[in-house]
Specification:
112 residues; mainly alpha; 86% helix; transport
Length: 112
């Protein structure tokens, strides 16, 4: 860069040597700043891709929870329908089956 009175020759020779030192220092600082900017850029790109991945995962979980909620709602509706009717024998069988399943699970966990 040329500045008025600081160039080659003339009365600004004593300032030109100091000026080049400042230029070198500025270039060194500029390289450091460029490296930091590149690091921040790559970090922000990585954060963006991670956010996109997490959003996709959350959408998938939302879909799964919605389908599970529908399934549980239908099952509870059937249980309510069984309890309203005179099918108490079937309800007893269902309760015995649940107790049996819990007992078997308890037994498997206990053996470990």
């Amino acid at each position: 860069m040329r500045r008025a009175g600081l160039g080659e020759g003339g009365s600004g020779n004593y300032v030109a040597s100091g000026y080049s030192v400042y230029e070198e220092e500025n270039e060194h600082l500029q390289e450091g700043l460029r490296a930091k900017v590149n690091a921040l850029k790559s970090l922000s790109i990585d954060i963006g891709s991670e956010v996109k991945y997490q959003n996709k995962m959350l959408e998938d979980m939302d879909t799964d929870f919605d389908s599970t909620g529908g399934l549980l709602g239908a099952t509870i509706g059937r249980v309510k329908q069984l309890s309203r009717g005179s099918q108490t024998k079937l309800l007893c069988y269902m309760l015995l089956f649940c107790f049996f399943v819990f007992f078997v699970l308890y037994w498997f966990i206990r053996l470990r």
